[in-house]
Amino acid sequence: MRLLRSTDLALRVLMRLAVTEGSSPTTREVAEGMDVPYTHAAKVVAELQHMGLLDARRGRGGGLSLTGKGRTASVGAVVRSFEGEGDVVECEGATPCPLNTACRLRGALRRAQEAFYASLDPLTVGDMVAAPTGPLLLEIGRASQGRS
Fold it and tell me: Which residue of 8, 75, 104, 106 could cross-link 120, Cys pair, CB 3.0 to 4.6 Å?
């Protein structure tokens, strides 16, 4: 299974904010640090804010910060939210699969997808930044600040 770019970015934004306690980077700083287009980062940040996982404040002294809910959020729930409820393969699209009514693959793929999500459910954002990941993320953040 391959994650959407927005799902990957959402997880990386949450991880970045989880290790930057006391600092509130802006969406632009996060986008630059992750080398992604600002508009893409802004859409992801807006969705994470809508989910209640981060706070975004505008103006002087503003920036992004992880909420308590964001720190304890299930990675599986975040991935499900960004990936949507769709099947792994499109069986009923513009050209429906001729096996659609008798296919056993669709059910097997759905079970595999749910097993994938279930394996991520117990993992929280806080778990993802435990050592050695958190300290490494901080080093990467410092290195990207040095490039600016």
Answer: 75
